[in-house]
Amino acid sequence: MLENSKQITDILENDGVIAFVTDTVWGLGCLPKSEKAVKKIYEIKKREPQKPLILMSNEVYNLIEYVKQPIPQPAQKLIKQYFPGALTVVLNKSKETPDFVTSNMPTVGIRVPNNKIFAEICEITPGHVLATTSANLSHQPSAKNYTQAYENMHNLADLVIEDYGETCDGLESTVCGVFDDENVKIFRQGAIKL
């Protein structure tokens, strides 16, 4: 379905930033190991440096190396139940996750969106993982369709990828943290009610 696969991989491999559809709202992303591209995302969004990015992929096993093992039991249950879907799980990170992605925090959020075009983008992404945030300026509403994402990002991101009719729901993901085998902490109630 993606018509510009080579363009997408070229941009990502050269420290570029792309905007794309997910199942919740439109996202902005880059390769997690590219400090230059991550900095660019913060500049584009005018995002506060203490707000971390999250890691997203089309498959949970692509994200495993970025989180500390073993994954706590409650997190494993949530991942089984809600991935792919509108849930971001924040876990203790592994040394594979660069500090510049997580604002020097010891944790990282991971998510597997339920969207075909996003999955295809991950398939062709080197390493199959993107460091992401929403495709809007900080404190502005999230983009809910291609037109809004294009208006927000066309002069800022290196590419706004077509959604090919695979639209998003327009509700942000629910964000929860799991740091031990006992507790699940809700940081943001979103599309999934926990």
Describe the structure.
With about 190 residues, the chain is of the alpha/beta class. It has a single domain (about 5-190), classed as DHBP synthase, CATH 3.90.870.10. The chain is about 25% helix and about 20% strand. It contains 5 helices and 9 strands; from the N terminus they run αββαβαββαβαβββ. The protein has helices at about 5-15, 35-45, 75-80, 115-125, 145-155, and strands spanning about 20, 25-30, 55, 85-90, 105-110, 130-135, 160, 175, 185-190. Strands 7-1-2-6-3-5-4-8-9 form a 9-stranded mixed β-sheet, sandwiched between helices. Strand 8 (about 175) and strand 9 form a beta hairpin. The mean pLDDT is about 95.
What are the defining features of this structure?
single chain; 194 residues; alpha/beta; DHBP synthase; nine-stranded mixed sheet; 5 helices
**Main sheet overview:** 9 strands, mixed
How many domains in all?
Answer: 1
Can you tell me the CATH superfamily?
DHBP synthase
* Shape category: globular
CATH architecture, by name, is Alpha-Beta Complex
Query: In whole angstroms, how far apart are the ends?
Result: 34 Å
Find the count of extended strands (DSSP E, 2+ residues). Answer: 9
Q: How do the SSEs run, as a string of H and E? A: HEEHEHEEHEHEEE
Report the C-alpha radius of gyration, rounded.
15 Å
Strand order of the largest sheet: 7-1-2-6-3-5-4-8-9
Which percent band covers the strand fraction?
15-25%
Level of helix content? 10-25%
- The chain-level mean pLDDT equals 97
CATH topology group: DHBP synthase
CATH class: Alpha Beta
Oligomeric state of shown chains: single chain
